């Protein structure tokens, strides 16, 4: 009897061990349906192959989980950016809503142009004019007051052409890519020229990216008492611009590790993709090319927003993947 019992136990343990998943195996097969909004083709296959190879311990391109960092621009990469950056729409709406409480704004030409609905005149001042609009709409309030202002705006405002809430104009194929990466133990970060505090309000709900994994342009802040309570106060002084050469610096300062994957859509993302893909070891640079004038917008070299010129010229030479929105994506926005 003992002999038969011993044989049974050995057989049972052998079977159980054979059914146990092996550690560190890629979960790509399990997660494949997450890319259901992508058409079969070069772009989808390149992304899937890269993720599979970097998460398969038997692959020469295997990357340990602790080193799997993926960074993505936001405007034009994760959500739309035409006919102008959505954060600028927020600034304009804030100014119109609060102008009566700020007589000091009467001396700022760009703000007076906004109040007269002359957007062209407001933006003719270039970067300086835009900074003026951002400073007055993003500062002289507590961090929580600003966050609540952004939340309210997202609930109430609609895109002038699509009629959609701005935070619903995110790209479904990119949301799926973020999910696929996280399913394969990649940490996903936003690295944007947009405002870090603006993005942190809604990025987790939209993309599954928590506030501490958002890197962006920032204003200075101070910690002081207000109404009997210690608060973080946003002040109208520029702290850091997270664009172009600033993006690799922002990655270094906030993340502290070189990414494996970087995605963007404009020449403002060039240095971030360059930084990610230069040197030894596996890496993937991705450009989202806006080619779909029917479902979204078609623009690149001559665009006033999200200009993609140098990136288009150099992508093939540098081995960067260019995703054609019209051809590679079955859908644009979430249903």
UniProtKB/TrEMBL annotation:
Coiled-coil annotated residue ranges, if any: none
Source taxon at top rank: Bacteria
Cofactors demanded by this protein: Mg(2+)
SUPFAM superfamilies reported in the protein's UniProt record: HAD-like
A molecular function GO annotation: magnesium ion binding
Reactions accelerated catalytically: O-phospho-L-serine + H2O = L-serine + phosphate; O-phospho-D-serine + H2O = D-serine + phosphate
Pathway given in the UniProt record: Amino-acid biosynthesis; L-serine biosynthesis; L-serine from 3-phospho-D-glycerate: step 3/3
Keywords tagged on the record: Amino-acid biosynthesis, Hydrolase, Magnesium, Metal-binding, Serine biosynthesis, Signal
EC identifiers of the protein: 3.1.3.3
Gene Ontology CC terms, in alphabetical order: cytoplasm
Annotated signal peptide: 1-18
Enzyme class (EC, first level): hydrolase
Listed name of the protein: phosphoserine phosphatase
Originating organism: Algoriphagus formosus
